[in-house]
Design goal:
It is built from 3 helices and 7 strands; from the N terminus they run E-H-H-H-E-E-E-E-E-E. It is an alpha+beta fold. It has a single domain, classed as Hotdog Thioesterase (Thiol Ester Dehydrase, Chain A). It has a 5-stranded antiparallel β-sheet with strand order 1-3-4-5-2, covered by helices on one side. It has a two-stranded antiparallel ribbon with strand order 6-7. A hairpin with a 4-residue loop joins strand 4 and strand 5. It is elongated and about 60 Å long. The two termini are 22 Å apart.
Length: 153
């Protein structure tokens, strides 16, 4: 529970409750791969060469792992814990590749919420449209105060 003296009091969304979940979905596109490559320089042919990619164990063009896990950024920064949230630590295991044109859903669940600091431990899962786990793990987040008293920054 957020109190006036709580470090959560100055955050926009306030203190989440352990057990709370939030999620976002999106369908991957070839443009995601291109934009990620532009940012990072990752030109691995399994992202671009369809003939080569089909011959790999993946059997298809796949998006970069950063494209997949990027959906976690949106969930934690926009939904829960909310605006001002950054990752302090992540522990993600990639268990199934995500292909171009697949719909994925990122879900975060608050495992532990510190009342003395705006820090959360989260369970993190990305699943495809068939409900198969693609990325599983945990994350620790910190939510910065973005309010001054009653005024938003």
């Amino acid at each position: 529970m957020t109190t006036e003296n709580s470090p959560w009091a100055q955050t926009i969304a306030g203190q989440p409750i352990a057990g709370t979940t939030a999620q976002r979905s999106r369908t991957t596109r070839m443009r995601d791969i291109e934009m990620f490559t532009e940012m990072t320089g990752d030109r691995n042919p399994i992202h671009y060469d369809e003939a080569l990619a089909v011959a790999t164990p993946f059997g298809k063009l796949i998006v970069q792992g950063g494209v997949t896990t990027g959906l976690f950024n949106a969930v934690v920064a926009e939904d829960m814990p909310g605006p001002g949230t950054v990752f302090l630590e992540t522990n993600w295991k990639f268990v199934k590749a995500v292909g171009v044109g697949e719909t994925i859903t990122a879900t975060v669940r608050a495992i532990d919420v510190r009342p003395d600091k705006a820090i959360c431990q989260l369970e993190t899962i990305i699943r495809n449209a068939n409900g198969e786990d693609c990325v599983v793990g945990t994350a620790t987040t910190y939510t910065m105060p973005l309010r001054n008293g009653d005024a938003e920054a």
